[in-house]
Design goal:
Helix content is 57%, strand content 16%. The protein is α+β, with helices and mostly antiparallel strands and 92 residues long. It folds into two domains: 29 residues; 57 residues, no CATH class.
Length: 92
């Protein structure tokens, strides 16, 4: 009985490893940047109530902790320092 439980655990671990390998393989085909770009770009940004508001291609407002928001924040801050208060970013 104990041996059967250990075999089951071993099989589950092997199955998880196989799934992880498949997932990693598919992720290598498209890097993270390309996935984000396809999913969200072009994006638009503007200043609303003294906050940077970023909206993606599907008109979805991105949260401050979103990867795209974090990635583009420094570029947008540079634009603001150049007295540009809205714009569009076409790609990463």
């Amino acid at each position: 009985m104990q041996e059967e439980k250990e075999n089951m655990k071993s099989n589950k671990r092997a199955s998880r490893r196989d799934n992880m390998k498949k997932q990693m393989s598919s992720e290598k085909k498209k890097d993270r940047r390309q996935i984000l770009e396809e999913k969200h770009y072009p994006i638009t940004w503007e200043i609303v109530d003294n906050e940077i508001c970023i909206t993606d291609y599907f008109n979805k407002k991105l949260s401050k902790d979103h990867d795209v928001y974090q990635h583009e924040l420094s570029f947008i801050q540079e634009e603001i320092s150049s007295m540009r208060f809205s714009g569009e970013i076409c790609c990463i």
